[in-house]
Amino acid sequence: MKKDDSPRALKTRLLTMMVLRVVLALTFLGATTWIQVTEYSYSRLNFYPLYTIVVIISLLTILYAVFLGRVRNFIRFIYIQVTIDIALVTAIVYVTGGIASYLQILYLLVIVGATILLGRRGGLYAAAAASITYGAMLDLDFYGILPLSYKVFWGFMRPQWEDVLTTLSTNFLAFFTVAYLTGYLAEKMKAAEQKLEEKEIDFERLEELNRNIVENISSGIMTLDIDGRITSFNKAATEITGYGLRGVYYKNLEVLFPSLLEAGAESGSDSIRLEKAFKTKDGRELYLGFTVSEGGSGDAARIITFQDLTHLKGVEEELRRVEKLKALGELSIGIAHEVRNPLASISGSIQVLKSELSLDETDTRLMDIVVRETDRLNSLITDFLLFARPAKETLEVLNLEELVTEKVDIFRNSPQAIGIELQNELDSPLFVDGNVRQLGQVFWNLLLNAAQSMDGSGCITIGAICTNQPVESTIHGVASEPVQRIEVTVTDTGAGIEPDRIPLVFDPFFSTKDDGTGLGLAIVHRIIESHGGRIEVKSTLGVGTEITILLPVASVSGVH
């Protein structure tokens, strides 16, 4: 039992004793009245002392209740009540016959009550007080000192001293035995209550600990009742889905995750693992991994945990692409070198033959085609080698705004830009660590790709901002500290790309154009990756495409 709870518990027990005292007094009054009416209605017995005692008990109980709210020392207040109760019991025993009375059992009730309220010490005090008052009353009654007029019942024969001594010793033994045994039981009960309360406190702490763990775990957790209704939804679940507990509480799981349980039921296992696409409350597309486990009963018949695997899926896709490109690159580099040498021989031989032989117009045109196609094949092999193994050239601090502006001006005067509007919205210096030739090729390829998607009419917009969001950059495969980034966007108003083909645009030899080689965006991806950046694509059919490039800000101190 806690110390700060003792006064409250003591007060509760004291109120219980006061109520029981009144009930006992009223019962005693009723029994006395019944006896007077049925057995002694015509006798001259004086029942008024009993009535007086009952009235005194009732008045004292009212007085106790009035002072209960003002008492500061409950222990002393209880001792006073116990003492008065013993005196009243002594009076009851005297008026009901003294040594011949059978109501000395009331002493035991007072002793038990004192022990429960005050412990073993209080019980022994009550036993001692009862022994003293009871012995004094019997002695005074035996020697005729007390007036007989206050007795309701009395015997016609004077008791022997041996009878008085036997009665006294028997009751004294009973008083102290009851006090000791009741005190022992009270201490055991108190110890049991303390242990129970300590366990209850431990359970409260464990419950609080479990609640904190569930609320702070990074995975979404929710529970379902036997009818499939959501009964709990932790903080991570809210952060992932965008729905709060108030919005989903007691709603069927199908409202939030349609067909989730049906998809998992096919496995036939108690613990189900599956992955599903999910659209959040704010419209974001996520890929979630679920684990459905059978719980117990009630509000936790099923326990569902889920995690956002969207980023992990992106990483897996990136690793898949890297592994694919690595294997393809290692195989193709050797082939490309072997093909380039015969192409050079073919091109040189044709040019020698063309200059030494007398050819008609048709033969000359055919040789020109051979030379042109060998040059085109050589250019394709050069691009492929650049994609398979980008040159590790020295990086320097570049003004990205000047580089992009130069490429836009050159492209504006090229045949591919006829009928296309170019908007350059880079109007402030943006410094990055990069290679001029490689980054120049990136923006040239992006402008060329955008122009080819618009069939001679439309608008290309290039913009850039410097964000404050740190990202992990990787330069030539070496991890660097988180740095700020420059975000460059190239937007066109072309035909757009079909949603299922967007993840493939950076794959080698994948092209949305009939005459494309499929290496342009693949080379762009490799160069941006080698600069520690990232490239993303968003596209809508019939509206256009937006390509976003994220590059780390220049690491040179003082460059902003």
Order of strands across the biggest sheet? 2-1-5-4-3
Global structural class: alpha+beta
What is the distance, rounded to the nearest whole angstrom, between the alpha carbons of the first and last residues? 67 Å
User: How do the SSEs run, as a string of H and E?
Assistant: HHHHHEEHHHHEEEHHEHEEHEEEEHEE
Helix content: 40-55%
Biggest sheet overview: 5 strands, antiparallel
User: Strand share of the residues?
Assistant: 15-25%
Which stretches are low in confidence, meaning pLDDT under 50 for 5 or more residues running?
Answer: 1-5, 471-480
Query: What is Rg?
Result: 50 Å
Mean pLDDT: 77
Q: What's the shape? A: rod-shaped
Number of helices: 14
What is the total number of structural domains? 4
Structure summary, number of beta strands: 14
Describe this structure in words.
With 560 residues, this protein is of the alpha+beta class. The chain has four domains: 3-196, no CATH class; 220-308, PAS domain (Beta-Lactamase, 2-Layer Sandwich), CATH 3.30.450; 315-388; 396-552, Histidine kinase-like ATPase, C-terminal domain (Heat Shock Protein 90). It has helices at residues 6-38, 48-68, 74-95, 105-142, 161-216, 235-241, 245-248, 253-256, 260-265, 310-356, 361-388, 400-412, 436-452, 520-530; strands at 220-224, 230-233, 271-279, 285-294, 302-308, 396-399, 420-424, 431-434, 458-471, 474-475, 478-479, 483-492, 534-540, 544-552. Strands 2-1-5-4-3 form a five-stranded antiparallel β-sheet. It has a five-stranded mixed β-sheet with strand order 7-9-12-14-13, with helices on one face. It has a two-stranded antiparallel sheet with strand order 6-8. The two termini are 67 Å apart.
